[in-house]
Every structure is written in structure tokens, then in C-alpha cells.
Amino acid sequence: MLRFAPWKLVSVLALVAAAILLIVPSFMPTGAVDSLAARLPGFIPMRQIVLGLDLQGGAYMLMQVDENSVIKSQIEALREDVRQKMREGRIGLSGGIGTEPRGVVVRITDSAERDKAYDLLQTLSQPIGGPLAGGNGRNLQVSKTGAGVQLTLTDAAIADKVRHAVTQSIEVLNRRINAMGTKETIVERQGADRVLIEVPGLQDTTKLKEIIGKTAKLDFQLVADPGDPPSEVETLPMDKGGGTITVQKRVMVDGADLVDAQQSFDQQTGEPDVTFRFNLIGAQKFGRVTSENVGRPFAIVLDGKVISAPVIRSPITGGTGQITGNFTMEEASNLAILLRSGALPAKLTVIEERTVGPGLGQDSIDAGKRAALVGGLLVVVYMITTYGIFGVFADLALAVHILLIFASMILLGATLTLPGIAGIVFTIGMAVDSNVLIYERIREEAHLGRSVVSSLDAGFKRAFATIVDSNVTMFVAALILYLFGSGAVRGFAVSLGLGIMTSIVTAVTMTRMMIALWYHRGRPRKIPI
Amino acid sequence: MKLLRLAPENTKFGFMRFRRVSYPLSATLSIIAVVMFLFVGMNYGIDFAGGTQIDMRAKSGEAHLAEIRSKADSLGLGAVEVQRLGAESDVLLRINVQSGGDAGEQSAIAKLRDAFSNDYEFRSVDSVGPTISAELVQSGTLGVVVAIIAVLAYLWFRFEWQFAVGAIIGTMHDLLLTVGFFCVTQLEFNQTSIAAILTIVGYSLNETVVVLDRIREVMRKYKRLSTAEIIDMSINAVLPRTIMTATTVFLALLALFFLGGHVIRSFSAAMIWGIFVATYSSIFICSPMLIYMGVRADVFDKPKDQDVDPTPSQRKVKA
Q: Looking at the partner chain, which of A350, A440, A483 has a beta carbon nearest the beta carbon of B240?
């Protein structure tokens, strides 16, 4: 054991040097790192350690797509499709279209008509993902009942729509958040129906929630006439000032056709408002509706609330218009951002929120540093007072151990959290355990009357099996914590797991080298512990 | 330089004699832990109970707890828990899960912000809806169970079954007493507590493995000694290491407890407790188990599955 190839020493030194190089950028100001990275060749990693939101401050939000709202909007769309098909097929809707929890039912009393409608509506049922994507099942189940034709959305279709809704939501949210001007925001899918948002540095989530929490579905609906059938109208609340207004269910034009929206000022009153512009299709639709309904009030509905219902004075064919509604400047500019970015395909509910202010984050960094420093120092002093020169070797190995944890975290892009720091402090205690196992074994062997060389040899050899055994159990615990834990706790699992691996390298290999070098230099007659 | 030795040299303590004390003691403590768990329960944090927790700091001067409490009570958010957090100016405010599903939490946060953000800086806001807290309970429980199974499977492969049983009982003991610790102290039980529990399981097995490794080694060497003598000899041999390691880990955790900030204080406290319990159980619970299960030096001479008591004559032949 006391002989080892020189290349081993060289490779350990190279490893330490590489680790130091990896860590250096984390101690430099960010600007300096960026400018240096630009000048150095690309293979040199100039990366800083990634701090978790609990340390750098920021907001974390987990949002869930509301399945019910997806189903609801799908049913709305289905109603429109059915209505159109029936009109195309010239089949009279004797009983109207009724809404069911998972679909619609078309009520037709005449049985011949019903059969005709059934054949016609069958064409609405299509393979999920378009006619070419096979194997996913169909989007609709069409069946005949005693009183009409029933169309039910399949589970697969709903799951597909939810998945789509997540994808679309991520795009929309990205546009909205970028418009707010925040940096390094993460918006990503989480599981089947969730979206995760991380905004470093953001403390007050109120504005963020105003921006991301709204569906921003803009609809233009005609205010109902007294003569409209009750199944075709709905009563909506006003956005401001209370009160309700009854409008036709049918959406004449919607926000999907908007190409731009800007905060502006009303030319007469000087109040903040929002100017919007439609694309060609939207402009045509808007022009047709406004020319057909001059003199009628037209409701501007945002997320089921009526912002205003101005009377159409003249046809609007230019494709632009204003939305007024007693806005403050901020409200108007938020609304403009929302309309510009597009509507969310479904309602998103915040199911978990964690915000850490920069003050607490910095306090946590300081506390973590202090605890690590003091904890490390106590262990270092204790090792030296117990094992003398061998304790110094263990402490040197410990220093490299900490260095390697940080270096591997930077290399892997792992996030350092406060529990992660706790994990590192804990591994400081655990890393010297391997040294202790070896040293105590060496002492025992020496007490049995063995020579210095053979005690050292036996100490390392015998302790090694135990070291591996005891670390495997700890590593398994860390691995499982990583798999089942979430958030900051994962940071603990990462540093614990990495720490266990690096401690075997440092406490066994490095200590052995140092002791071998020490032995060859002095040829001591006695074990100094 | 005179080196420091916390553990006396070449000890010959009769650890196994204490099993008549340690077993009833541990059994009693374990039962108390279970009873406490069932009838008192742990103080679940918002991770598992759901709800919202806000860490506030007064913008000037000290925080007025009574005022915060009455103001928060008037918001109609159910029971409000207000407690001081270390410094005079820091307060932790916690409310339970709101009715109205996940959206209820959000409107509660908005109300609290309106009420307090003029006078207080919101240092952190954590809000966990009922969906997530249910999932965290599930994954936390599953994590602990899977960890125990995985680690025990490893022990099963690595050691004779009697050793594995000893380790299982020791681990369960440590787990129960840690749960009991949370019940007694009413420290907040959250995700980091799960991390603490799994780490304690790891540490406990680490201790056990070191002791069992040595017992096995000694058993192979001294076949004539009684099991109790062998175990005593082994524990005495690894005692310096046990004390040394427990002390270093304890020192590191002590620093975390006092300096690491309130966010990880309950974690550090549980870990410190766990170190003591694990060290105790590896010596006084796991090892004596081998005596109770009738482990003899000759388990190593036979294939694992046949442990018929060999006749004295057979033993003599082998010795």
C-alpha cells in the first residue's frame, strides 16, 4: 500500500487543479465571468454555481391547468360545430342543443330527422391529432338516444386537449412575462397538466399573478334583445362597479384574431385606454358584425366579465378599435400586455407558491456560510487534536472533499440550496468518518504489535470494506431522497450523494497517498496516533 | 504533542449486560412514541398540512404580535398562528388551508399583503394548496418506505439474515424515536424533516454496519467465545471510532443548529437527536439481537439457509 505509481499522484493533483479552476468563477462578479468567458476558449467551463431561489431570492409558482375549464371550452366549441353542421345539413333543431357534463345533446323529436342528424354528426368524430395520426382513439363518441343525438368528449380527447393547453400556456406565459421585462425566467411543463414558473429576484408576486393569473380571453358579444330565447343568452357581471348585463351566448369576434394591443389615451376624455388591431379575418368579421348591428350595444367581455358595452355608432371596418373602461394607467397597460400575448387556452390555478425575498436569501447564504465555516473548523481542530499529523492529512483531504463537491455541482449544473449547504456540512462530519475508521484500525493493528508498515497496510485494507458498506447505505438514502423529494430538499440529496462519492476518493485515496509520502520521507518507527 | 482521546483505550465494558435495561427502556420509549403519534400527533408544517406561511419583518422597530394577530383575525381566514422568529422584528404568520380549493390560498395571500405590506417586509411567502400537500404526504411516505426497503435489501445480501433482522429492528427503533421526538418537541414537521429522517436511517445503518462488520470478523476469529463475549469485544474495539464519528458529526450539526438560520433549525435538531439514538441503538439494540436470535460463530461455516444447531462433535471437527 505504501507504494503507488507516480501517475496516480499526478492525476490526483490534476483533479484538484481542475476542481479549483471550476470553482474560481463562482467567486468572481458575474460581469467579470461573462467577459472572461467570451475571451477564453469554449472548452474551459466558466460557469458560476447555480443558487436555488431560497438563496438568491425569487418566486416559484406551480400552476395547474383546470381540466373543467378545458372541458367547458371544448363543449362550447362543440356546440358551435354542431350548430354549423345542422345548418349545412338543413336539419331543424326542434329541441335545441343541450349541454351535458361531458358533451352536448341535440334534441330532435322526429325520428327520420334524428337518423339524418346522427349520420351527419358522425363526421365530427375524428381521430385525435388529425386524420393522419392513428392509434390514439377518437375525439368524440356519437350515439343515438330516444330523444336525440348525444355527442360525448372522450377521455383521450380531454387528456390531449389538456396537454395542448399546457404547451400553449407555456408560450403565452413566456410572452407575457417577457413583456414584463424580467430576466432568466423559467417557464416549463411539469407532469401532464402543470406549468412551473421560476422568476429569480422577484419579491412581490402580486403583479406577476395579475399578469399570469388571467386567462385574458377577449370576446365581443352582442347585448341580448328581450326576444332572444333563454337558452341562447347568458348574464355576465360587469368588471367594475357591480351590476350584471345579459348578452347573447354567441361570440361574434374573439381576441384570437388580435395582432396588436397598446395602451393609449382616450381622445376625448384623456383617460387611459387600450387600442387594439385585428388581423384581416378579424377585421372582416368585426366589420360585418358592426355594420349589421349599428345602434345596438356591443359587449366587450374579458374572462367572463363585461368591461364595457358601448353602442355601435357606425360600422368599424378598419380593424382597429379602443377599449375604455375607467382604467388606471397600470390596468390599461397590463390589459394591453395580456391582449398582445394572447389568451391562455384554459384557466390556470396556482397550487403552490414559494417566494423568498432577497433579504432572507442573503441572510440564508450568510447563515449557511457561517455554519459551514464554524462546523468545518470544529471538525478540523478536533481531528488535529485527536490524530496530530494524521489529523492534518484528514483535514487536507476534507478540504479537497469540499472542493470536489462544489466542482461537481458546477459541472453538473446542480442547484445549491440551503438544505444543500446543510448536506455539505453534514458530509464534513461524515467524510472524516472514513479517516477515523482507517486510523482507529491502524491503531488497533499497531497495538497488536505489528510493524509500522504492516499496521498502515492492514488499517487501510481492513477498513475499506466497512467504509464501502457504510457509505452504500447512506448513498441509498440520498438517492431515494432525490427521487422522492422535491424543491430545496433535492438540493440536500444532491450534496449528500455527491459528498459521499467524493469522500471515498479523498478520505481513502488521498489520505493513503499523503501517509505514504509521509512514511517515505521520515521512515518513522512508531505510529503517531 | 499529547493527543486527545475521548474514548478510553482498550475498554472492556460489558455492553451486553445492559440489554436487560436497554430493551425494556427502548420498548417503553417506542410505545410512548407510537401513543404520542396517535394521540398528540406531529406539528405538520404547510408542506404536509397545506396552508400559507409568511415570514415578515417590521419595516421599523419591533413587530407587534398582538396587533398582527387581531388584524389577521379580522380578515376571516380562519385560525391564524403568529409567532416571533428570533429577532424582535421578525414574525412568522401561518394560516390553514382555505376553503374553496387551491384558489382560496391565493386570495388569502392577497388579503394578507393588503393588510400588512405597508408596515412589514414580506421576507418569504410559502403557500401550498391541498393538491400539492396531499402529493407531498404521499411522496414523503413512499420515500421513507422505499428507502427502508432498499437499504434492508442491501443488508440482506451483504449479511447473514440474523444480522439483517438486528439492523431492521434497530432502524425501526430509530425511526420511531425520531417520530416521538417530533411529537414531544412539536418542532415543525416538513419536507426537510423527511430529509432528516432518511439521513438518520442512513446514519443508523452506517453505525450498525460498522458494528456488525466487526462482530462478523471477530466471530470468524474466535469461535470458542460466547456470542455475548464476541459482541462485547467487537463493540469495545469499534468504540473509539463510534465516539469519534458521533462527535465530529455532532460538532458539524451543532454549528448548523446555532448558525444555520431558522429555516433549517428543526432539521438540525432532529439530526442531532438522530445521531444519539442511532449510536445508542447500534450498540444496545441491534447487537444484542444476535444473542436473542441464537447466532453462533458457526453461522459462517454453513450455507446461509441451514442453521440447524450442530452437535458438539461436529463443531469440534471444524475447530
A: A440
The reported pTM is 0.83
User: What pLDDT shows up at residue A135?
Assistant: 59
Q: Provide the 10 A C-beta neighbour count for residue A129.
A: 15
Q: Which residue has the cell 361531458?
A: A102
Distance CA A505, CA A498 (A): 11
Q: Closest to A489 (Cβ–Cβ): which among B150, B158, B191? A: B191
A460, A527 Cβ separation under 8 angstroms: no
Q: What is the pLDDT of residue B281?
A: 93
Q: What is the ipTM of this complex?
A: 0.86
Which pLDDT does position B316 carry in this prediction? 40
The rounded distance, in Å, linking the Cα atoms of B132 and B136 is 6
DSSP for B23-52, written as a single string? HHHHHHHHHHHHHHHHHT--EE-HHHH-EE
How confident is the model over B79-107, as a mean pLDDT? 85
Contacts of A228 (CB under 8 A, 6+ apart): A248
- The helix (run of H) or strand (run of E) holding residue A265 is strand A258-265
Contact (CB, 8 A) for A328 and A19: no
In 3-state terms, what secondary structure has residue B51?
Answer: strand
Nearest chain B residue (CA) to A357:
B123
Q: What's residue B309's pLDDT?
A: 44
User: Could you read off the pLDDT of B282-297 as tens digits, one per residue?
Assistant: 999 988 888 888 777 6
- pLDDT, tens digit, 9 for 90 and up, residues A42-72: 777 778 888 988 898 899 999 999 888 889 8
Enclosing H/E stretch for B286: none
Pairwise pLDDT comparison (A388 vs A202), residue with the higher score: A388
What is the three-class DSSP state of A185? coil
Task: Choose, out of B48, B124, B216, the residue to mutate when testing the contact with A (most A CBs < 10 Å).
Answer: B124
pLDDT for the residue numbered A366: 93
- Record the cell numbers describing residue A272, joined without a space: 387611459
Q: Residues A459, A484: contact at Cβ < 8 Å? A: no
Q: In A388-417, which ranges are continuous DSSP H helix? A: 389-412
